[in-house]
Amino acid sequence: MLKWRATFLTLAGLGLAFLLACSGSGSGSGSGGNVASGSMNVHLVDGPISGYQEINVNIQAVEINSNGTWITLGTPNKTINLLGLVGGVEETLATGATLPAGHYGQMRLVLGSGNTVKLADGSVQPLKVPSGMQSGIKLIVNFDVAAGTTKDVWIDFDAAHSIQVVQAGMSGQYILRPTIWAFDKIATGSIQGTLTDAATSTGLPGVTVYAETLDGSGNARITRSTVTDANGAYTLDLLPVGTTYYVVSHPLVGTTTPKAYDAKASEAFALTTSTPVFTYSAAFTANASTGTVSGGLTPLATSSQSDQVNLLQSLVTSSGTFSFIVRTTMAVVGTSTETYDFTTVPVGTYSVQAVRSTLNLDGTTTTTTSTVQPATVTASTTTTVNLGL
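Now predict its structure.
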């Protein structure tokens, strides 16, 4: 197992991870007097997730910390369906909020009650917010606000990696364990294109598309995700410049009897301030021979932990062959077992890896990864791969 302490992750100095723990401090007006001021707009977006019709989160306020004092940027005081914020749709949380010019390193979202999830069958279940987040979800940021300017900040509330299902008898308990990223839009770029069926040249609708990066050891991480529209078109925006990205997709089209396609990865796109926009379109080959990968995780996650499982596959790109994440899911925690599964997976050679996030008492997050385990998928069978953390 590999372990490391992570208080934040940096994406070109502007991407960020979040801290779930909250420290006290009331909202205020920041530095007073004649300090030069700027302003800030804050927008909320999300990525796709399957298995839910709605994820409704009540956001009371968005705040930023100035020298130990919390400044209220906006008070939306509304319940927002995160799944309505996909494919370029955004919700404005604050507009033209005045704040002292200077450097900022911390923001937070203050949540209210009445958070719910609407499942695929139409039933509505409460979405539990852990007590440690009642006074706000903290984000470590790296923003400079210049006097007389307006900073546009975009928060990506990654629902796909924020909902943990904990079974309780025959019904599930749904717990919010937020994964949130924030970006200064002026320093970001995008990749767009169209995904099609290689045999018919028709667009592939409702397909998840990932923007992935590779670390120095070749490990993949999903930076942003989106879903194709009715014509198969997609846009992966809010990608911090100064980073190289690969576009990865493993299409599944339809819900009742989904049609599976073999995965593909793009060439490497190095986004810079001078070349912030790229285009990548691809034709995918359908594969009627599919199977399932499933298994268990040990030891069982505690109340302060959440587990994500990634399905990886080696894909050929113009710059080499790399192991990319082709699908990802949150594990389901039962009373005595913890399980995951990937269904309708085209036959082939894959691997799986679990990632466990543990919230520590000091507010930091410890990430533990399992060893990567091989998984060979054959037609109409279930391949069982158990993972230890």
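The longest strand covers residues 52-66.
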